[in-house]
Prior knowledge:
Protein name: Methylenetetrahydrofolate reductase
Largest sheet: 8 strands, parallel, barrel
Mean pLDDT: 87
CATH class: Alpha Beta
Strand content: 15-25%
Number of helices: 11
Shape: globular
GO molecular function, one term: oxidoreductase activity
Radius of gyration: 19 Å
CATH topology: TIM Barrel
Structural class: alpha/beta
Keywords: Oxidoreductase
CATH architecture: Alpha-Beta Barrel
Organism: Palleronia pontilimi
Oligomer: single chain
Distance between the termini: 45 Å
Amino acid sequence: MSLLSFKRPAPAARVAHPGMQDFLSDFSIEVMPRTAEKVEDFRALLPAGTRVYIAHIDGTPIDDMVATARRLNDAGFPVMPHFPARIIKDRATLDDWIARYRGEADVRQALLLAGGVTEPKGDFIDSMQLLESGAFGDFERLHVAGHPEGNRDIDADGSFKNVEQALLWKQKFSQTTDAKMAIATQFCFEAAPVIAWANAIKEAGVDLPVHIGVAGPAKLQTLIKFAIACGVGPSLRVLQKRALDVTKLLLPYEPTEFVADLAAHKQADPEFNIESVHLFPLGGITTSAQWALDMSGRRAAAN
Length: 303
C-alpha cells in the first residue's frame, strides 16, 4: 500500500476512562504568555481551580509573565510561574519579580528550576540557590524539577548521581519550610521506567509527592522534535516505534495508554508517590485540556 493511496483513519471518539478519573482529578497544565494570548477564556477550557504553570522562556519580558499571571488569577485559577535560576540576573531582580507577582497577581506558588540555558545570566545557577535565598519564605507551595530518565545537563555520564543528590537536598529543605513542596517532572512516554524511578527515589528517602509530566496530544513529528530537544531518555522509543507504523504515523499521539498504566499502578498501590498529572500542551492547550476533560469526565469551569 502506498502512502498516496492510504486513507487517513478517522480518530476514535473519546470516552471517560474509569481508571484515570481519580488520577486526572487534579491535573495541572502549562502555558506561555504568547500561547495564553490565543485563549479567549480559560474558563471554557479548564475545570475550576486547575493549577496553571506559566513557563518563563529566556527573553520573555517579566511584564508579559505578570500580565498572564494576573489574567489567570482573575479568572480563578491558581498560578505557578517558573523561576529559572540561570536567567535571573541577581537577588534584586529576583526580589522584583516576586514583589510584582505577589502584588499584581496574588501569586502564592512557584516552580523553581535551573532553566534551559547553558550559561547563567547572573548570580544563580540552580534551584537550590533560589530556595536558600529565603526569597520564597511566604509562598504557600513550591515545586522543584524531577527527571525520571535522568538529565544529561546535570549528569553527563548518563547516571542519576547528581540529580538524586539534588532531590535529597530538596527533601531535606522541605522540612525547613511551611510551603507544600512537590516534584514536577519532565514529560515521559513509558510507565515502567517512571514507576521504577518513583519507587527508587522513595526508597532513597525522598517522599515529596510527584506530579508526573505528560505530553498532551500532538502530531508525532512534533513530539519527537520536542522530546529530543528536551533530553527525554529511553522512553523516546515509544514514539520511534509508533513512527514505524504508518497507520499510527498519520494520527496524533495521545498519552492515554501511558497515563492509564500509571493510574492502574496507583490503584493497586495507593501509597505510590505519584499523586498528579502535569500536562505539557505540545499540540496546543485546547487539545490537551479537552483530552484531560474527556478522560476524566470533568467539565470546564464555564460549563
